[in-house]
Each structure stands twice: as C-alpha cells, then as structure tokens.
Amino acid sequence: MNLKNGFTVMTLLALPSIGVADTLLVPSEYGSIQMGIDAAVSGDIVSVDPGIYSETINFLGKDITVSSASSANDTYIDGNALSDSVVMFVSGETNNSILDGFTVRNGGQQNYTSGIYIVLSSPIIRNCIVKSNHSQLNGGGIFVDTGTVTLEDVIISDNSGSAGAGLYLKFSSGSMTGGSVEGNVGVNGSGIYLKDGAGAFTMTNVTLQGNSASTNGGAVFVKNSELIAENCTFDLNTSIDGAGLFCYSGGNATISNSVFTSNSALGLGGAANIRSNSTVSFLQCTFDSNVADSDCDAVGGGAILNILNSIVTLEDPTICDNLFCDVEDMFIGDDPIIIGDILDCAVADGPGACCGGSACWVMDEVDCLDGGGLWNGSESACADVICEGGGGETTGACCVQSNCVHATEASCVSAGGVFYGTSATCGTTNCPSSCAEDVNGDGMVDVNDLLLLIGAWGMCP
C-alpha cells in the first residue's frame, strides 16, 4: 500500500463536508414557508410559489433568502390579524438574511406587532409590499429596534399605528432605495418615524404620499436622528404641524433635489416644521402648493417652513403657490438662511397663437419664441389674432404642402401655399398630405407638375 496515497484518502474522508446551497420549494416540498425556513441552512433559498400563505414566519437567525418564485403581486404572507407579527427577524440576522418578493399583510393587533418586526438584526427587504398591518403602539408596517434595515423597491402602504405607522426606527439606521410610503395613518410620523438614531437613515428616489398624522409629521418625523434624502417626493401628506417633515430635538436632515407639493398642515409648517435645536438643509428643492392653517381658523402659518430655535438652510429653492389659509405665504418663526436665488416654478402653459410675420401657428410658447415668433398667450387662437406684418388684412387657413397656417392670401400665395379663404381656420381645414410627385405643392398631381418637371429637364445646377 502506498502510505502517501492512503494518508491522502484518509485525510479527505476525515474533512467536514463542504456545504452547497440548496433551493427548498414551497409548497411542493414543504407545506409552509416556516417549514422551509426550519429545514434551511446558511446560504439556502426558500422559493415560494404564488399563493396566499396564512402564517407568520421567523428567520431564526439564518443567513438565507426567502423569495417568491413570482412577485409580490401574487405571493402573500397573510398574518390573518393574529396577535403576532407577520415576519420576524429577532435572532441577530445579518444582511445575508433576505426577504424578496412578497406582500406582507394583516399583521396583528397587539402592542408590539407589525408587518415586519426587526430587533437586533440587519436584514434586507426587497421587492415587497407591506400593507394593511396594525400596531396599537409603533411601527404598524415595519418596526426596527437596535438594528439596520435595508429596503429596496419596497412599498409601505395603508398601515396604522401610533408613531411610524408605516416605518418606525429606534436606536437604528438603514436605507430605502426606490419604492414608496403611502396612505399610512397614525399619530406622529405616520409615514416614517426616526428616533434616537444609531446612524443615518438614507432615502433615495422614494415617494411619500398621502400619509396622515393626527399630530405632527404626516410623512416623516425625525427626533435625535439624521435623515438624508435625495430625489424624493413629499406629496399630499397631512398633519397638524409639519405635514411633509417634522424635525424635533436634534432631528437633523439634508434634503436634496426633492419636491414638497400639496402638503397640508392645520397649524404650522405646511411643508416642514423644524424646531428644538435641529439642523436641516434643503438643497435645490421645490416647494409647490403647500398649505398651513388649512382650516383657516387663523391659527398657524409658514406654508413652507415653521422654524423655532433651529438652523435651516435653503440653497436655490424653487417656490410657488404656497398658502397660509388662502393667502400666499412662505416662512414663520426664525428666518432661514437662503443661499443663491429663490426660483419661480415653471408654468407648463398650453399651446397658443404664435405670429411669424403675417402668418399664425398654434404651438407651445418655447417653440414660438425659439423660432423668433410673437407669442399671444396660452389658449389664444389664430382665428382671433391679427398678426403684425399683415397690413390689417384678414387671415385665413393656408396649406403649405401638408401644414396649415393662418396667413393673408398674399402671404399664402407668396409662400407657394393654397389659400382656403378668410372664413376657414386650421381647426376646420385638412391639408392634403404632401407627396414628392406634387411638384408645385397644390395638393394635386396633374399636368402642371409635369410641365414644371419638363421645364427643369437637364443637368441640376
């Protein structure tokens, strides 16, 4: 026997087996999602077919992926309004613990229950819808305590609770990229509530819409934490104070390239309320149609901002149509620091009459001015406009090949067009489609076109 080879074989047999990731199928191999999780080991994937799974699940500290074989639109984990949370990460899960592609709904009715419950863990939630969950206390949709949560393309909607009805973070940090927070109802920070953060919470390309708080912070409440938001939309959120954003007691934030529109506060700060030693910067943000004192009882103000004992900076803000009740308004309380210019909102006017000499076209203002035309205003009609250069002559519909303009008869003929009379308008005139054979552009191919062609016979100049 070759001792060297024998030693090698025996050594290999003595080594522990090398784990290979497996895919566990639900329900074909395992009757429930939790049964799949129970059987899984580190690195495994629990793949779940579309359907409604009336159960609650616990990742049990495992570095595994639980994913839908389809999408959140047809794969549901339904807590059936039981007393427990629907999905739990409570055993030190890391960012190798991933939930992907489910609708998580109907979380229980008890104090510390929610759709997704995270304690001392740092999972990734991806491509999920978290909706219609309820907590008697905080975090109806997602509750995070002393952890880090990563949300990728997640929709958090129609959840209820006290603070952070949609998403509640305490002693935690995290990020949200894509997705939305919408229609959540609570007392404070109904969309998102950040408290005593262990690090920044970042939001990128997130829409916060239609969240309603009975007290402060319809969309977001930040207390002794840091929020960093970029390319986000705060829209149609409501509360008593700070309908879009409420920062309190060291609630710091940097908001860039974001839009605050149509947020409504019964009291102070239609878009935002910043107070109690907080520092907030708004960089290239738009504030449009936000309202303070929405019930018009003369209590409130600051359609854009209420500032109290805090530092707020606005850099190149765009501001328009913000109201204190029904009066145009911007700030109340301490003055913000404004860097750069306050820009007006661009008004998207409709098309109107554009004069070019004696001719008139219907087009957008930008196109008219770029072409050197004279703009007559949005919704103006060529039939009602006498363009300069027309000598007071009446204009009518003129077809130049397949295009219709309003022009005098002389200008129309000079341009090689066909004049349809002063009683005709482009709105009622259909110009014939142009074709290459229609040499003289009168809308017909006839002997006149042939004569023009024969007259031009020979070498091109």
Tell me the structural class: mainly beta
Poorly predicted runs are 1-18
Count of extended strands: 49
Helix content: under 10%
Radius of gyration: 33 Å
Return the average pLDDT rounded to an integer: 87
Number of helices: 5
Strands in their spatial order, largest beta sheet: 1-2-5-8-11-14-17-21-25-29-33-37-42
Can you characterise this structure?
With about 450 residues, the chain is mainly β. The protein has a domain at about 350-455. The chain is built from five helices and 49 strands. Strands 1-2-5-8-11-14-17-21-25-29-33-37-42 form a 13-stranded parallel β-sheet, covered by helices on one side. Strand 39 (about 325) and strand 40 form a beta hairpin. The N and C termini lie far apart (about 100 Å). Residues about 1-20 have low confidence and may be disordered.
Topology (elements, then pairings):
Blueprint: H1 3-14, E1 23-26, H2 33-39, E2 45-48, E3 51-54, E4 57-58, E5 65-68, E6 75-78, E7 87-89, E8 98-100, E9 103-105, E10 116-119, E11 124-126, E12 129-131, E13 142-145, E14 148-152, E15 155-157, E16 167-170, E17 173-177, E18 180-182, E19 185-188, E20 192-195, E21 201-204, E22 207-209, E23 212-216, E24 220-223, E25 226-230, E26 233-235, E27 238-239, E28 245-248, E29 252-256, E30 259-261, E31 264-265, E32 272-275, E33 279-283, E34 286-288, E35 291-292, E36 305-308, E37 311-315, E38 318-320, E39 323-324, E40 327-328, E41 331-333, E42 337-339, E43 343-344, E44 352-356, E45 359-363, H3 365-370, E46 374-378, E47 396-400, E48 403-407, H4 409-414, E49 418-419, H5 447-455
Parallel strand pairs: 1-2, 2-5, 3-6, 4-7, 5-8, 6-9, 7-10, 8-11, 9-12, 10-13, 11-14, 12-15, 13-16, 14-17, 15-18, 16-20, 17-21, 18-22, 19-23, 20-24, 21-25, 22-26, 24-28, 25-29, 26-30, 27-31, 28-32, 29-33, 30-34, 32-36, 33-37, 34-38, 35-39, 36-41, 37-42, 38-43
Antiparallel strand pairs: 39-40, 44-45, 44-46, 47-48, 47-49
